[in-house]
Specification:
Blueprint lengths: L5 E5 L6 E5 L8 E3 L12 H23 L4 E13 L6 E13 L5 H14 L9 E9 L8
Parallel strand pairs: 5-6
Antiparallel strand pairs: 1-2, 2-3, 4-5
Helix pairs in contact: 1-2
Amino acid sequence: MFREAHAVWKDGPYSGKGTVSTPGGVLSNASFVLGLAGTSTSTTPSELLVAAVACSMSAMVFLRLDQCGAKPLAVDTHAIVTVDDSGNGWQLRRLHLEITAQMHEPAADRLLHEAVEKARRDCPILSVLNLDVACIAKLVSPDVPIAA
């Protein structure tokens, strides 16, 4: 199995801009810039990376919970990467994950923490990153709304 993306950068090393596309079409000439913050119409490579982490961890935690017999309704991952721009180029330093699992089982807290640890170990995105990772996991009942 292969996954792919295609990116083009133009108009200078710092003030330029780029586009990125994927065969699935979700990213189709999406605009990106370098730096710490994208704009309302563009993203950054670090923002794309942290989105990949959030996607992968939500799916991995859900899978691990299901494998241990818990029946999660949803898993929400909020991922924040710390980007250091202290002069040696942009460096990714730390990753903070806040994982919320929505489940019927009120006593599944131990299962959630075990699932998060397994997911952190097995996550294909985290496994290639050399980052300090901090993680907070919490369990909420079905009547507590989590992000869509």
